[in-house]
Amino acid sequence: MGQTGSSVVRKLVSPLSSWYRRDSHDTGQELVVSRCATPFVYKRRGSMCFDEDGDLAHEFYEQVTEEQKDKRKTVMKKKVNVTPQGEVDHPYPRLHVDMPVVLYEPLRS
Fold it and tell me: Which of 3, 34, 63, 85 has the highest CB neighbour count under 10 A?
């Protein structure tokens, strides 16, 4: 009867309990923080790019003139000499998306 309830609790608690480990030299009362996993995200992949001038933007465009007809000018998206921004630090730690814990449950009236 209680197996489904205990298995759900085990699935919820196991990710949280893996962040802490018991120290074998002590009496077992102290918990030592393990560095194996954390629920926080400190960095993200940047969505912007640098161009050859060092400017930072989401997209770069350049004005191109067509010499064949009317010397018409068109704007084209720049794809050459653009490097991605890389890893960007968050201003404060964020919770990971896959953290299986209910953070808030509204009260029922």
Answer: 85
The predicted-structure confidence for 1-16, as pLDDT tens digits, reads as follows: 445 555 655 555 555 4
Secondary structure class of 71 (helix, strand, coil): coil
Q: Widest CA span of the chain, in angstroms?
A: 86
> How many C-beta atoms surround the C-beta of residue 48 within 10 A?
13
Rounded to two decimals, the pTM is: 0.51
Which uninterrupted H or E stretch holds 106? none
Element (H, E) at 8: helix 3-17
Question: DSSP string spanning 21-55?
Answer: EE-SSS-S--EEE-SS--SEEEEEE---EE-TT--
